[in-house]
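Methods — Computational structure assignment.
A single polypeptide chain was analysed. Its primary sequence is given first, followed by the predicted tertiary structure written as structure tokens.
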Amino acid sequence: MEEQLPFLLLIAIVTLAAVISGLFMVWVKQPPMVGYILAGLALGPAGIGFMPHVDAIPLIAEFGVLFLLFVIGMEISLKAFIADLRPAVLTVIGQLTIALVAMAAFGAFLDWRFEQVLLLTFVVTMSSTAVALKLLDDIGELRSDLGRIVVAVMIAQDIAIVPMLIIATSFEAGGSIEPMTLVTVALAIGVLVLFIAVVGPKGKLHFPWQDRILGRVEMVTLVALLVCCTTAVITGVAGMSPAYGAFLAGLIIGKTTLRSEAIHAMEPIQGVLMVLFFVAIGLLLDVTFILENMALVAVFVFGALMLKSVANIAILRLVGMPWKTAYQAGLIMGQIGEFSFVLAAVGLANAVLDPVGYKLAISVIVLSLLFSPLWIQAVKYVHEASEQRVEGLKVAFMAGPMPLAREIKRTVGRRKGAGKDQPPAKEDA
């Protein structure tokens, strides 16, 4: 017990710091994951040095990703996704294509191998689901056409992470992609497409023995873990990655009557693992590396945010989205997502990324998320400006010259708080 006490105390202090930091971020209306990363940064070598070494990061990452994919699979609405399937899939394909071209250009300049180019393409393509959903909720667009297309693209990216992880884990000791890996990826995608096409349009399916399970939290949790781990083991043995099995298990349970209670039962487990994962990422962040390579890191962070935003806008316009929806959605999806940490960790473990490349990738991802509050404010400003512009255009087209002048005067007066000095506007008959 004496040997365990310091470790347990360590975990308790780290968890406490993460919880306080996460709650603070929620209080200031920012993603809590940013707080978890900052807690790790403060406790790690770059901060007070409370935790100079972190040996459990790979295990935490594996567990966190497994259950994160499981919960995401359960939360996905296949019917809603099918309604926006074409633009969402085309958008993700376009994102991957542009990212591949950009990373290939950097790779030619920095002498990267093809495996590095491909892995970093995956890293920069992913966007943060948590940041995107929070932003949509803040601006009141979660249920609008804008929210629907952003959520559809996020779902398509979540589905795309499965073949990405299969490919990333196939780089054994920095080796190249084997033909069998491509067959495995094709099979995995084929199973997902078949499942979505056959089961997606249908309603809820009755889970076996649901009368004995529903309403009992411990039974729901155990059954959900049973389905998740069984499918993960089967797909892992088949060479398609345990994460793929967990995601497929989530899709299966998500189409059954067990869905609602299973989500509530699994979210606390997945949440704790993800907190520890993001704290560990903060512990790994090398501030010295960032300061010594400030120009390179700044170019990658700024380039990733700008290139992703511009590329997203162009792609969404090409797939038929209106200009307003395209540029707002493009900005919302401009940051780099939480799954990119996992891809970078897999790349380091398989020697696709060297320690310097890994530090650069982690620095860019973390700074992208840390700057997300500023990015959110920029998106809000653009959203409000566009709303005012649209309102002004409506007034211009719907009113004559004199009524137009009076309406503009009233509008400007109300926004500046000067409405009290003007007569109240009459309602239209």
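Note: The first helix runs from residue 4 to 27.
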